[in-house]
Design goal:
The complex is a heterotrimer of chains A (152), B (263) and C (767). Chain B is of the alpha+beta class and 263 residues long. Helices cover 31% and strands 26% of the residues of chain B. Chain B has three domains: 43 residues, no CATH class; 104 residues, Uridine Diphospho-n-acetylenolpyruvylglucosamine Reductase, domain 3 (2-Layer Sandwich); 98 residues, Enolase-like, domain 1 (2-Layer Sandwich), CATH 3.30.390. Chain B is globular and about 60 Å long. Classes of the chains: A alpha+beta (152), B alpha+beta (263), C alpha+beta (767).
Chain lengths: 152, 263, 767
């Protein structure tokens, strides 16, 4: 067991953990159920969290490595997410919803880095977020509608 | 599922090296590949606190720390202006932004993965690995070495003036490449690195001086043929060796034509 | 076409659960299961065909935290099927919870229950198994009457007569025809005979199979599962475990995608067995690898199609033989195969003089197949539409023109579709509309873009059904709440498609209220009215009609209560927004007053529960067109635009219907270009992860555009037909067509990879 300190959604957590505990299991143990597992091969993007504001795959990150860092999940970014997810809901592109948290987290990262992305920039940044329901086009329309609404 | 008994963020390379001499211990890079295996690791050695996560640019070289991520390569202005965006081309289709925020240069180069875009790209450049004990070794030689218990500290890329082009073929956009080609022209000499054969990248030089008179349609065709003939390619679930050989010819030709401004 | 101004129907309202899902609330099985649930893990066979000779679990049971390990010796000897189908199931009873005879690489050998995942994994590695490895049937084309039997057992049972025999490796077999096919074929100017091959594609829903079980406060088995079929799961568990149905409750929370995968009880029985044995809560979460190697994928099929036509492009006869691979078990085997003919051939009713459709469904030692969106129609339509495109190209006719000449039109009787009448069919309008929107005339010609790249286009039509006629049952309970709003209680399963919302829209339309005034609950076998479940494209059409009927009945009941309150006849009552009024007066009672009235000194309730079934299954129709850029040297295909027009009757929620279509198109693109399924020499799937099984990303699908042509289906709720499945059917034939245009080569096996494109020659076309 090793001791780690992680600031999770603004709250400092000190805990004894197994060295091979993955960050996804750490945050789910702390009731951050938005973080989902979709594969074991780092391919799907469902488990995306922000570590020091950088989007990473929590299924492939040791909790031990996150020691001393700040981790945010969708639970901690409800307000920021609320500013745009309604536009995706208007398209019906939420569908089954299982990929939504990872997709929303990476969209937050995108919009922080590039507040006015082109469609191609959106596709490229979100390429690592798989969705099996929506066919992606509706997610794009939703983000585009949000960006357009901000310009008015 | 990988298991880890003990985890250490080392404070020095010396500490890392000592720990790494135990065969059950292991240095972790981005963890992306390691995580998928069933290894039982006694001590996981993490280099993340050693300041190896920076790209330093001087007048004559780039010094890329082992813990630099692929995303840092993708966004580095100096590297991309030096290579006319070839570096960005080589990494931009690797899975996704989150993955590239984790995968490290050290992990990619040390592992010498067959599918590695990164190894292929840098092999075509004037690159060296800086090993903790082994010192500075040309990347193309390092690629052929057996795995040992040394530590890859930095990747050094000389700013020898030249031209660089990267092209890969992927069945699906973020998949492993079916074949990867990096072409360079350094000091008037052309060299081609081909990766994902599916074995690890190898370098082909213009031994017959096909391109000595410069790039034109004819010399490009001839060198592409030469590269295809001289780069062994094999079959796996993604493609046959025959198709890979075909792709080497096509992509090499296209790299040359683009480098020659003939497109 | 009937046209009405609807208030809630044909409106793009948000899904009722949208914000919960988009903000990441804990609404899925794993999120709501308590943390003390036992971890259930399965030891799987590495062999495709073997007998477990000895299995030693002693050491595994000694691992700290391991509660128990179960093997074939511990389970009942009743055979059952996992297929989520109406009883008696067409699928054979060929499974045990754990069978000593393992029949595919991935079949279950032992169940481990442990306090932690680590302990469970440790136990898995310590179970010692010895196998007698048998020769296996790995190529389904050699399965029929092969001396190696996948199911040699004597207690194999087929509840329905579907032409199967376990002694012949045959799950089902049938012949059907109309007219004299051989005579007409002989009289045709041109006959094309072609063979197609499609693979066992995985649904790859983002949430893998998972189930949580516990004993409730009455000691009954309480199952929370990611399933499309709560009532079928109750029956399947009862059969498998040998416990009465009234001792089982099954409910589904939100589901992270299904696409038919969860129309089979893939994961339920294992934790249920553990809970019954240990009395403790238990949960199984399939890894992605397990979902890929032991899920319930599409039936691999070989379709041999013979098409006879006149030289002016009239399609006169079709002769289709489908060989379907059910894999190691028979789930959905006898039924999927029928769609390969019955939901392809009718599209050419306009000109067809005769058809024959025969099939065999076989067992093999590969992963058992199941239900996947399209359910056999996808495979048949790939074969038929590709052959029709080849006919057009051979005759130098525009492929849209050849379809105009032959296609099904509204009002026609469809002999290949159980003689149903195409009562609502805008297929012709879909084709015209799509052609115009897509710019077919400009995009169809092959255009050289330089550097080995060409652009061109392809087209395909599709159909599906809207339910299983004379079988599916949908039900709805609608209850007045005393504030004048409603509960809608259903047994259909919203798996992300939005059926909770569209059914609420129907209530809102009937009861003249807002969609927000309708609270939806489902699905729970203890609380929901019976519903076959969400599959066969049936929820909108069947359950929707039940909702409409329940609302009409409830309105009548509420009018009766209002009449009592006002002391007049029920016939004098008029149902208005928020109140019920006596005709020609201002006397009225509010809905809230009626609601309260039902709670005091009364024998009349304000709720209605209605079931619905249909003697017909009206097909939706679709036309898809794709423009590609193809690199002739590398074989890479870039999709530029995919456009489609769908006739799903009246779309209840156009935004959700559009997303269904877009999502289905991208799935179809996936199995056409990227998703391969292959086995190693021992029969183990190679594409066992999302690293190897490549789903399309948002960089792979080009730009999508979907529009609708309305028809009005008289038997559907508000004119609606289905949308859920048809949408996956056009990409394979449309892309194969475009690839032919670019290269001169017809590809008849999926997926069509860059290697096949680059390395094939037009000389290979005849087969």
């Amino acid at each position: 067991m090793i001791e780690i300190k992680i600031k999770l959604n603004g709250k400092m957590i000190t805990e004894q953990i197994d060295p091979d505990l993955l960050l996804i299991d750490f945050v789910r143990n702390h009731n951050c159920y938005s973080v989902k597992r979709g594969c074991e091969t780092s391919n799907c993007g469902l488990c995306t969290v922000l570590m020091d504001d950088t989007p990473v795959l929590s299924c492939s990150m040791l909790a031990a490595r996150a020691d001393g860092h700040e981790v945010k999940t969708l639970e901690g970014l409800q307000e920021e997410a609320s500013s745009f997810v309604g536009f995706i809901a208007d398209q019906g592109a939420d569908q089954c919803g299982f990929c939504n948290p990872g997709f929303v987290m990476n969209t937050i990262a995108l919009l922080r880095e590039n507040p006015d992305p082109t469609d191609d920039e959106i596709r490229a940044f979100l390429a690592g977020n798989l969705c099996r329901c929506s066919g992606y086009e509706g997610q794009l329309r939703g983000i585009r509608a949000y960006l357009d609404s901000r310009k008015q | 599922m990988v298991t880890i008994q003990k985890y250490v963020k080392v404070l020095s390379l010396d500490e890392a090296y000592e720990l790494n001499q135990n065969k059950n211990n292991c240095i972790i890079g981005g963890m992306l590949w390691l995580k998928m295996g069933n290894k039982n690791i006694s001590t996981a050695i993490d280099l993340c606190n050693l300041g190896l996560d920076t790209i330093e640019e001087s007048d004559d070289e780039f010094s890329i720390g082992a813990m630099v991520t692929l995303r840092q390569l993708e966004n580095h202005a100096g590297l991309n202006s030096f290579t006319n965006d070839a570096i960005r081309s080589s990494v931009k289709d690797i899975v996704g932004v989150q993955f590239r925020n984790m995968a490290t240069v050290g992990g990619s180069i040390w592992s010498r993965f067959g599918f590695s875009d990164v190894l292929t790209m840098f092999m075509a450049m004037d690159s060296y690995v800086q090993l903790y004990k082994g010192g500075l070794i040309p990347l193309k030689d390092f690629a052929k070495m057996d795995y040992d218990k040394d530590i890859l500290v930095r990747l050094i890329v000389k700013k020898t003036p030249g031209k660089y082009i990267y092209k890969a073929s992927r069945a699906q956009r973020t998949d492993f490449p079916v074949i990867a080609c990096a072409l360079s022209m350094i000091n008037g000499k052309y060299q081609l690195a081909v990766g994902a054969r599916p074995n690890k990248a190898v370098l082909t030089i213009d031994a017959d001086n096909i391109l000595a008179g410069g790039i034109n349609e004819e010399s490009a065709k001839a060198f592409a043929r030469f590269a295809a003939d001289n780069t062994p390619a094999f079959s796996n679930s993604r493609a046959s060796g025959e198709y890979r050989t075909h792709l080497i010819e096509v992509l090499t030709y296209r790299c040359l034509m683009e480098m020659g401004g003939l497109e | 076409m009937e046209h009405k101004d609807y208030k809630a129907i044909n409106k793009s309202v948000r899904k009722k659960d949208a914000m919960q899902l988009l903000l990441g609330k804990p609404v899925y099985t794993e999120d709501i299961a308590p943390s003390d649930a036992l971890v259930v893990k399965l030891l799987r066979s590495p062999h495709a065909n073997a007998i477990v000779t000895t299995i030693n679990t002693k050491t595994a049971k000694l691992v700290p935290g391991v509660v128990d390990v179960f093997t074939w010796e511990d389970v009942p000897n009743y055979r059952f099927t996992n297929a989520g189908q109406t009883y008696p199931e067409p699928s054979p009873y060929d499974r045990l919870i754990i069978d000593r005879h393992v029949r595919f690489a991935g079949d279950v050998v032992a169940i481990v229950a442990a306090e932690t995942e680590k302990a469970a994994n440790k136990a898995l590695s310590l179970i010692k198994v010895e196998y007698e490895v048998l020769d296996a049937v790995l190529d389904f084309r050699t399965a029929k009457d092969n001396p190696i039997l996948v199911h040699p057992e004597d207690n194999w049972v087929a509840p329905c007569e579907v032409g199967g025999s376990n002694k012949r490796n045959l799950v089902a077999s049938e012949q059907s025809s109309h007219g004299d096919v051989d005579a007409i074929m002989a009289d045709c100017d041109i006959v094309l005979e072609r063979t197609y091959h499609t693979k066992a594609f995985n649904q790859a829903m983002m949430e893998t199979f998972r189930t949580y079980t516990s004993l409730d406060r009455y000691g009954r088995l309480h199952v929370i599962s990611s399933t499309q079929i709560v009532f079928h799961v109750r029956r399947i568990l009862s059969h498998a475990l040998g416990i009465p149905k009234n001792r089982i409750r099954v409910e589904k929370p939100r589901i992270g995608g299904g696409f038919g995968a969860k129309q089979t009880a893939v994961s339920e029985v294992y934790p249920a067995f553990v809970t019954m044995k240990t009395g403790r809560p238990a949960m199984i979460i399939f890894s992605r690898e397990e979902s890929q190697i032991a899920g319930s994928p599409r039936h691999e099929m070989q379709v041999r199609l013979k098409l006879g036509a006149s030289k002016d492009g009239k399609i006169r006869a079709l002769d289709l033989y489908t060989l379907s691979n059910s894999g190691a078990y028979g789930e959905h085997g006898p039924t999927t195969v029928g769609l390969s003919g019955h939901k392809s051939i009718p599209m050419y009713t306009g000109s067809l003089e005769a058809f024959r459709f025969d099939y065999d469904v076989v067992y093999s030692n590969t992963m058992a197949a199941g239900a996947y969106r399209g359910y056999g129609a996808t495979q048949g339509i790939f074969a038929l539409e590709t052959t029709v495109n080849e006919l057009a190209e051979k005759l130098h006719m525009d492929p849209t023109e050849i379809r105009n000449k032959n296609m099904l039109k509204e009002g026609m009787v469809m002999p290949a579709y159980y003689n149903e009448i195409a009562s609502a069919c805008a297929l012709d309008k879909c084709l015209d509309h799509c052609k115009e929107m897509f710019g077919w005339d400009e995009k169809y010609p092959v255009r050289d873009m330089g550097n080995g790249k060409v652009r061109t286009a392809g087209v395909a039509m599709a159909m599906q059904g809207s339910c299983i006629s004379n079988v599916d049952v949908g039900s709805a309970t609608v209850k007045l709440i005393e504030d004048g709003t409603y509960n809608l209680i259903i047994g259909a399963a919203d798996m992300g498609t939005g059926c909770d919302t569209i059914l609420a829209q129907m209530v809102a339309e009937c009861m003249d209220c807002s969609v927000d005034d309708v609270s939806v609950f489902g699905a729970d076998t203890d609380a929901s009215p019976y519903d076959s479940g969400s599959y066969a494209s049936s929820t909108t059409y069947i359950t929707g009609k039940a909702v409409e009927k329940a609302c009409m009945e409830l309105r009548g009941k509420m009018c009766g209560i209002a009449a009592d309150m006002l002391g007049c006849d029920k016939e004098e009552m008029i149902f208005e927004k928020g109140r019920i009024r006596r005709i020609n007066t201002e006397q009225s009672v509010t809905l809230s007053e009626i609601g309260y009235k039902t709670q005091v000194n009364t024998e009349k309730n304000a709720e209605a529960s209605v079931s619905h079934s249909s003697p017909v299954s009206p097909p939706p129709y679709m036309v898809g067109m794709v423009e590609i850029e193809l690199d002739k040297l590398t074989g890479e295909v870039t999709i530029l635009d995919y456009m489609a027009v769908v006739d799903c009757g009246i779309p209840i929620n156009p935004a959700l219907a559009r997303i269904q279509a877009e999502g289905g198109i991208v799935q179809g693109i996936g199995h056409t270009l990227y998703e391969n399924v292959s086995n190693d020499r021992r029969g183990k799937p190679i594409e066992a992860s999302l690293m190897q099984y490549k789903l399309p990303t948002r960089l792979d699908m080009g730009h999508l555009k979907v529009e609708f042509e309305h028809s009005f289906e008289p038997t559907g709720p508000f004119g609606a037909k289905s949308i859920g499945e048809i949408v996956i059917n056009t990409p394979a034939p449309a892309l194969a067509h475009a690839i032919y245009r670019a290269t001169g080569v017809w590809h008849r096996e999926l997926p069509i990879t860059p290697e096949q494109i680059a390395m094939s020659k037009p000389e290979d076309n005849e087969n």
